[in-house]
Each structure stands twice: as C-alpha cells, then as structure tokens.
Amino acid sequence: MTTNGRLETSEPRQWKGTLGSLLSDKLSREIDAFEGQIEQKRAGKLTDEVFAEMRLRRGVYGQRYDNGQRHDGVTSRELVFPNAELTKGPGTLWDAPGMVRIKNPFGAMTADQMDMLAEVSEEYADAILHVTTRQDIQLHFVHLEETPDLMRRLGVVGITTHEACGNAIRNVTACHLAGVCTTQTFDVTPYAAAVSDFLLGHPDAQEFGRKVKPAFSGCADRPCGLVKMHDIGGIARIREVDGVERRGFEFYVGGGLGAVPHQAQLFDEFLPEEELLPICQSISRVFARLGEKDVRSRARLKFLVAKLGIEEFRRLVLEDREGLSEDSRWTAYLDDVHKGHDGPLWQIETQDKLTPTPQLEKWLGANVTQQRQPGYKVVMIYLPLGDITADQMRGLADVARRFTGDSVRMTVEQNLALRWVRESDLAALHEALNELALADPRAETITDITACPGTDTCKLGISSSRGLARTLMEHLEERGELDEVVRGLRIKISGCFNSCGQHHMADIGFWGVSRKRNGYNVPHFQVVLGGQWAENAGSYGLAIVAVPGRNIPAAMDRIIEYYVDERDGDESFQAFVTRVGKASLRTLLQDLVEVPAYEQDPSFYSNWGDPREFTLGDMGVGECAGQVVSPVEFGLQASEREVFSAQDLLDQGDFNGAADIAYRAMLIAARTLAREKEIGLGEDPEAVVAAFKTHLYDPGLFHDPFAGGKFGNYLFRVHGERSNGFEATPERARQRIEEAQLFIEAAHSYHVRTAEAVSV
CA-CA distances (angstroms) from residue 534 to 227, 285, 469, 504, 735? Predict the structure, then answer.
C-alpha cells in the first residue's frame, strides 16, 4: 500500500534483532549492578584491577587527557570542529573523564537511536560522536559516575554498551551494504544479528583471556566485512545439496591485527547456516578453556589457533559441538532470514532525468553507489576522522526519516551509509546534507583517511595519528586533481604498533614511533606498504622505514608519484609494490629519514596538530660541526637494516633466510643494549641472550611501557626455535619480521628512556 508514493507497512524496515527485550530485563539489572560497583569502588571495597575489568565489560574506558584539554595549539577534534567546546573537567573517581563505547551490531542505527545518541553526547560528553573501524560509537570526556544513567538512556532505544570492551565477544560487524549490495551472495544482516544476540552475555563467553571480534561479509571479493582480519568470520556461500540450494558460510578463525597480525585460517569451506550459532558457542568454550590467561600478549584466539594448528583446533571445536545440549535459539531465527529486513520508504515513481550541477555531479561520482534494487542508491556520508557533531547527528536523523526511514549504517571506514535512496531524491538529499556540512565528496577515496584516536585520547598513543591524518587530507586537497589510479587508494594511520587504525591492510599505512635524534625525542611514523584492503583484508603489509612525522607528506607524495609514473598498465598498487620491491621504495624515501637540528627547524620536534615539544628533556648540542651519534644509535640502525634485508628475502621467497635474518636483527639490538651493561660482550648468541636477560629483561628495564615486556619475550622464543629445527612458512616468516621490528622499537624506547633519565 502507498500514500503519495510512501510505502505503508507494519513491518520494520530496519533489522533490530532481540536486543530491545534484553535491555528491559537482564541488561537493566547489569546496569544496576554496575552502579553498585561504582559505589563499592568509591568506598574502597574494589581494587583497581577488579574494577577495571568490570567497567570495561560495560564499555567504559579510561582515556588520555592531556591532549584533550585546550592548550596553546589545537587538538585534532578542534581541527575538525573548530567551534566545539570540550566542556568536561576532571572527575572524582578517575583523574580525568573517560570514554564510553556503544555497540551497534553490523553498524545499524535507527533515526530514534540517532536522536538519542545526539542527546547523550551533549549531556554526558563533548557533543562529538566518533564512529570506529568496528561500527561502534565512542563518546569521550564522560564522567564515570554518569555512565549508568547514560546506559539507561541508550537502553530506551535498544542500544547497549555491554561487552563493548573487555575480555568478551565484541561488536559483531558486517558489510554496510548487506542486503543491497550488487555482488552479495545473500544478506548477512540477520546472521550477524543472531550471533550478536546469542553471544551477548552468554555464560560460555565469559572466561576469555582477551577479546573476540566477529565479522560477516556477503561476498569474497569486496572488503566491506574484512573477515580475514577477525577472530571469527563468515563469508556468505550457497551450495547445492540434493538439488536444493542451501545457505552457509566460508568460515574463518584466528585472524587479528595488533602488534603482530595473523591472517585468519579456514575452519570450514561450507558451514551450514544452522551450525553457525552452535559452532560459535563451541569456539567460545574451547577458547575459554585453553586460551592463555596469564600472559595477555599471547591471550588472543589467534595465538591459540597458531599454537594448536588449525586441524587440532577444528577437532577440539567439533568434539565440543557434539557434546552441547540442544538450544532452540540456534535455529529459531532462521525462519525469518529470507524475508528481507529492511526496504524502501518510498516507491519508485517516474521522474524527469536529473541534470546535475558541477557540485552535485562531483558528489554523485564520489559518494553515491548503485544498489542491487533498481531505482535505488546507497549514499555514503563522509565523516572527517570518523567524527560527527550532535547537531549533525540529530539533523541526519531527520534526513533519514525524510528520505529512507531507518536505513542508516556505519561503515568500517568510519563513515555513514544511507540505503534505499530513490534516484529521484538525490538532488534534494544532497541539498539537505549540504546544509548539515555532510556533503563532502570524498567518501572512500584517498583523502578519506582512517585513523585511530592516537595521542588525542589513547593512553598508548606515541605519535599523533589524527593530527597526521588531518594534515595529509589537507595536503592532498592542495595538490588538486589526483590521477584516477590514485584516488581509490586507502591510507590508514595508527598512533602506535597496535594497528587500531588498521595500517597493516592499507595501501599506504603509517604507525607511530619515537626516535632519539640530536638529543631530542622526535615523533616518527613507520611507513607500511604491501597491505591488501580488498578480498576481505587479503594480506598484510610490512613497515619499510621510519620517517620523521614532518616528512610524511613528502614521503606519501613520492610513493604515489612513483606509482603513477612507473606502474605497468592497469597494475594495482599492491602488485606494483611487489614488482618494484620494498628495497626500491626504501631507497626512494631514504633521504627523508634525516632530522635537521632543533635550531634549524623546531617543527620536527613536535606532533602534527600539537605545537608542544615532543621531547621531555634537552640533552644539549655539541660545539663541533657534526652531530654526536651514540654507539647505541649506530647499533639500532644496524639492526633495522637487517630487518629490511629480511623483508627483501621474504619478497624473494626465501622464507627461512628471512626468518634467520630477522632473528639476527633482534640479536644485534639486544647486544647493542647489553654491551652498555656488560663490557666486552661478544657475538655468541647464547651469551648475548643471557646478558640481555640478566641485565635488561629480568630487572624490568626493557619492559616497554606500552607492551608490558612482551617484545623481550619475542627474542627468547625465537632464540629457542633456532635450536628446535624451525621451518619457516611465508606467514611465519612475515610474523617473525614483525616481531623483530617491534623488538627493535622497544629497544629504541628503552634507549630514549635511559637517555632522558641521564639528562634529568
């Protein structure tokens, strides 16, 4: 039935799952319990460690605060929204306000939910909402005491923060195009919703050593779901069985980014749809039982799969599955999965052909894509650095009601998507979005840069990922029209090694590090090349060189110009990097590694977007014309050269050689540091490892503050593998190179800390 072109139906257009009923019952009690735990913490009846896990399971994080406060410069949040007011001051239970993460399964939001999100961001946070790479919403500068009320407000519209953080099943992500994609096998939305509802608070998913991240994709080729970088993931498949088409999933386990990324391994070529929930339950049970609990750096599912091997892991899961008691929820949701769970607000009507203005035409080309249903389009809304103001969110809710109903989803690239937009409404929609400053035509282009919070709010941030991202966006805009082959490249930035910005799978990635140069700390970024964004994160890149932050725009220019000038026909960027080799690209950037003296250019000694000096102390400058370089710096540079040699061998297919050289790089770094403690230390590996352990690791000196000492364990494990007949696979060789790079970064960090201690 229609009314003036509007479809009238009693069925909801947006798939909502069963979360609303849970919030009114179990999760409501959870919020009450959390409020009581806050009171216990205030009374001194809970330790910091116990309370931390309690609040994390409810989506409440502590956050770094120094860069969130106003100072002589501006933060990246102010760069995006110069009129924003960061109104939250220090709290009482924390030294400063924190962050709240809100789960939105498969990135879906209704207009009512968007209104509520806008309200709570104004009342409890700083009126800015941040969309994450896993389709969550984050609010910053929230007082801990106010979080229970915030959670109850969200619960009214069917949103929860429960298990958005902590050692639990995290938000279940999926393609933002699911159900409307032109290449999908089938709509994965109801399956993602079922996994989210089933595992939320499930008793078999409460005893993990670390988090578990699930994802679903409707097809293998497009990257929307990024299945192969997740702990648990399914790619939609259809198989004919006894003449009948059956739905199922190409099912993966054990993926993950972090410091050392692991590619997910194939668990089942075709997991029938009715087995999805019980297998996820059994995976949770096996992980809870056998996963690492004590050493957090080895506690992810990827490490258990790697330790057991995929065959043994599969055997254990299937054995557990056989013993599970039947649960009606495993298949109850399947009665509805073929119905279609969102649809148009308006019917298609005949209308004159659109004659776009130049501005509209540019937006149509960048932000509008075809939907599988004729006459409808998907409109992408670009969010700078994933941020949207409360006013914009509220205005967008009204826009959604007018044009699409509830069909709004977040994307893994920190944008928003409006689905079921009639072609005839595109001009009016563009005008409405333009009034909200949400019609920027750069969605899913090279200037649509993904970045983690970095030094703005994250306690682990080393270099300013958001500051660099904003700088690169402006730099690319100033360059003018880019070559067409460059426009679709992905740039992703992390403030540290942990890959929250997903730098490993970008065409061009960066992750923040620090170097000691000319007596000062200097913010740097490792340049990562060779990642594959397509095919659900088909492969990961490696860092090729650390470049001072101030030189990153120049480094990016050289890389893209080299690609444009030297590519072979329609060669992809990843194929180009493989063909020319990382050694060639390293040489291309080598002169950019140099850092001028502080007096010559002090900008090198601060982060982008933050004029404050990056250093904690001034060691002074010698009177001679040349700079004094310590033996430690020479040794660490030598270890980095070895890592790059290992990368070259990896590219050439010499996996054992690459693994051996990566081990040697660790030894050089360990010997360099240990020689300061043990004069006369030679090069015998046993002696070097023993000296490193005695003088640096056991006393806790090498324990990198961001990694809890795990990078030192890399050396001990690799040293032990050397005598046990280690045979390198391509994946294991690449991981060893990653581990060597991280060990060397920890060595740099140790050198910086000890140099600062001497200068104080």
Answer: 11, 32, 21, 13, 21
